[in-house]
Design a protein that fits this description.
Elements (H helix, E strand, L loop, with lengths): L1 H27 L10 H9 L3 H10 L6 E2 H13 L8 E7 L2 E5 L7 H12 L5 E6 L10 H10 L10 E3 L2 E2 L5 E3 L3 H4 L1 H16 L6 E9 L14 H11 L4 E7 L3 H9 L9 H4 L2 E6 L9 H7 L3 E5 L3 E2 L13 E3 L6 H9 L2 H18 L2 H18 E2 L8 E3 L2
Parallel strand pairs: 1-14, 4-5, 5-7, 8-9, 8-10, 10-11, 11-13
Antiparallel strand pairs: 2-3, 2-4, 3-15, 6-12
Length: 401
Amino acid sequence: MKNKFFLIFLFLGAVLVISVFFINYKKKYKGTNFKFISTDKFYEKLNKPPDWAILQIQEDFQNFSEISSKNIESTYNKIQSEKSEYKNAFFRYRIHNNKLYKYDKVDKKIDLEKAILTLLKIKNLPDMEFIYCDLDGLPQIDGDEAKNVYEEFYSVEESRQAPIFVQSKISGYKNLILIPDHNSLSKNWKHLFDKILESNKSIIWGKKESKAFWRGGTNDKEYFLENYKTRPRYIISKLSKENFEIVDAGFTTSWFVKIEDILRDEDLFKLEASETKHLEYKYLPVIDGHMCTYPGYQWRLLSSSLCLKQESKEIQWFYKGLLPYKHFIPIKNDLSDFLDKIGYLKINDDLGILIAANATEFAKENLSFEAVYAYLYDVLIYYSKLFKINDFDQNKWQKVE
């Protein structure tokens, strides 16, 4: 009888210990993506950054030799003094004693916070302060107007300027530091990445239809009655109506009410299609939206189908690692050579197989969840070496948990 009670006691004790362990584990990693990351793979990526990643980070920071809290203060205050609705998408953060803080006690939660909290659980980060923009990218427009808006809204005099972390940008604009987009930092990307890899096993090149396939919204820059016929997403949807044997393309959503009825009258809307549905086709156009299309470009690179990338000034953190005709086929911004490129690929199938395989290998190596987080960590470390730390007044900051 004593042995029986002793065994019951041991069993209950073990259950209690295990329960306490899991409760503490859940509490410790709450609000992070820690459980979705392989720390071994993370350190592997961290210890062997690709050359293109090092060059991209160095290029982004080339205008800064030192960054101080005064730079952060002047730049952030300038942004917040503007009347633009965009100012609410700029956030100021501080890492102090390996904890994350947000300025002004803003309640909005964003994916970057969870990503940084995840990094802080994996490997310590130095103290630093930075500004992050949660818009699709900066500047929101291009050309002379963008130059004026950029200088008036985001910039102060050079000696007081702070860098701004962004998800994408128009090439050539200094002071903007590329980091992985919020989609790539979320657990959804981990799930999608794994799903695409699994689908690749059964949807091989020989089973794909020799046709281009695209679905998307009417969000490539602004649509007006005067210009909508020049928008690339309209053009590819119209091409599909006239050349359906070559391309199956169409809108799934409309962001511009004024022209939605016109587009519907032209029968340019189609049902949405899953990512795995796209994998059934050999040729996947990559057409920018309001800014870069993410994570659409990433999963298309991974898909074992062939990306036809629209020429654009808009870039993300990983673009420097991609080479035309090695990882993708470039097409003109107005898609004027699109049909010719598809025709060429149809009679040069071996080239398509090779480029698609190169792209998939690049994505597996550089766009995995661990690789994405390693790049973010590298950016923060590079930034911290330029940052001149000052005293920390915790009363001005809200701890992010």
